[in-house]
Design brief:
about 450 residues, Beta-lactamase, 2 domains, 5-stranded antiparallel beta sheet, 14 strands, elongated, disordered N terminus
Length: about 450
């Protein structure tokens, strides 16, 4: 357990050795993960099969074609699983994606600590407000002082320090690309000044502990950093830099043959002259995928600031502006957020409060029959049970039937465990669910929540 009560389940990264293919489930509208074995050539004497069209994986809207579970039958199965001591003090809701009918619930409107399931709210707000190809640009410009390079950050924490984007942030810009922009413009800077960019206020959120920087959970939220501030860009759990923007500036200085002492962070906006060029981030959908798959707290905070800046471009953004923008957009989408309290957009703060009902309402914006193509991208970005992201090493043993079928966002703090996502039943009916547990060790609670979600997969319940 790390400082300030954050439990991380730290361990070596689990690497999947199998190929997962997204398969359309037309009646249910959700994809599943299927194993494929590729055989080279055909047996002698067997005519080659005709070539098939290239697959076009994607998510279809939920439909009412498959039989729906009976709530009473489902309750008889889920009730005992929810009553085990390992599940702790559990609040929950399960809804039918096609109709919105509540299939099972337990105190669903109680506002609880949601941990990282808050990222679902952040993702839906971003997809509702920003275009799918939205990018955050890092601007490079000449300074008013001769031989000065000014970096104007735009809110990109994913830039890579290497020649290619790192494995955690596909499509990210790179420091070598930034250096090439400067050289191609004919500038040979003697110094680099980094503008403070569009953020204001504290760099650590309410309830955040500085110890979590070394633990790898957070970096100070600044509008420019490399690999989310990680010291090892390939390790999700890597310790992070306490000064990520300064570290990014020094990496650019090295690429431009300058010493690290030639980099300065400005406290006030810097007067800049000719723009030399920009280094864009990956598009929004790719960044949302990285945020959800790896539960990246820094990326969540910068994305909600991006939403806030889009709504109020004349104002610099802080934690309060980001959370307010998320809640306002959800309210505009018809979500009742009257009982929701957010201190941050990542779920790191123990002061956050969200109910299971709100989480399932948010999920149905992506899983329901009226969901847009862009909104369904959220489901495609969720970790897959036993296959990817924060669910890669879960769903074995008693919950193994959920492997490949459960797509969900995880959430873990010291005495809080959460799981919220979608699942397709054995009859082909899709459901959204939210499970919020407190008062028990996450090492015990998480398998209990996994068994509930796996039971949704197993059950026709008619």
């Amino acid at each position: 357990m790390s400082a300030k009560g954050v439990w991380r389940g730290r361990g070596p990264l689990w690497r999947v050795g199998l190929v997962l293919v997204v398969v359309l489930v037309l009646a249910a509208g959700l994809v599943t993960a299927a194993l494929v074995t590729d055989v080279d050539g055909d047996p002698p004497g067997v005519e080659a099969a005709p070539a098939l069209p290239a697959p076009a994986p994607g998510l279809e809207a939920a439909t009412a074609d498959a039989p729906a579970p009976d709530p009473a039958a489902l309750g008889r199965i889920l009730g005992p699983l929810a009553d085990v001591p390992a599940a702790g003090d559990l609040t929950a809701r399960v809804v039918d994606d096609a109709t919105g009918q509540v299939l099972w619930e337990r105190r669903p409107t109680d506002a609880r600590v949601p941990a990282s399931t808050v990222k679902l709210l952040t993702a839906v707000a971003a997809l509702s407000r920003l275009p799918a190809d939205a990018r955050a640009d890092t601007v490079l410009a000449e300074g008013a002082e001769p031989d000065t390079l000014v970096v104007v950050p735009g809110g990109d924490p994913t830039m890579s320090g290497g020649a290619e984007a790192g494995p955690l942030f596909p499509g990210a810009g790179t420091i070598p690309r930034a250096a090439e922009v400067v050289r191609s413009a004919g500038l040979r800077p003697a110094r680099i000044v980094v503008d403070p960019g569009p953020y204001t206020g504290p760099a650590l959120g309410p309830g955040w502990s500085p110890a979590e920087i070394a633990a790898g959970n957070i970096a100070p939220v600044q509008p420019w950093m490399l690999d989310g501030g990680r010291l090892d860009p390939a390790d999700v759990y890597s310790p992070r830099s306490p000064e990520p923007m300064l570290a990014a500036g020094r990496a650019l200085a090295l690429a431009l043959d300058l010493g690290p002492e030639r980099v300065r962070l400005a406290e006030a906006p810097v007067q800049a002259g000719r723009e030399l060029g920009r280094v864009p981030s990956a598009p929004l959908t790719e960044r949302l995928r990285s945020m959800l798959l790896h539960s990246d707290n820094v990326l969540a905070e910068t994305l909600c600031r991006e939403v806030a800046l889009d709504r109020s471009p004349e104002k610099r953004a802080d934690f309060a502006a980001g959370t307010a923008a998320v809640l306002e957009i959800l309210a505009e989408r018809g979500i009742d957020v009257s009982g929701v309290h957010l201190d941050d957009c990542s779920g790191m703060s123990p002061g956050n409060r969200v109910s299971a009902a709100v989480l399932t309402d948010v999920l149905r914006l992506a899983a329901g029959p009226d969901a847009t193509r862009e909104m369904r991208d959220l489901l495609d970005a969720l970790p897959i049970a036993a296959a990817s992201g924060t669910l890669a090493d879960r769903y074995s043993g008693p919950s193994a039937s959920g492997a490949g079928w459960v797509r969900a966002k995880t959430g873990t703090l010291s005495d809080t465990s959460a799981l919220a996502g979608t699942v397709t039943s054995a009859d082909g009916r899709t459901m959204s669910f939210a499970l919020l547990s407190s008062g028990t060790n996450p090492a015990a609670a998480r398998p209990a929540l996994d068994r509930i979600a796996a039971a949704l997969r197993d059950c026709g319940c008619r």
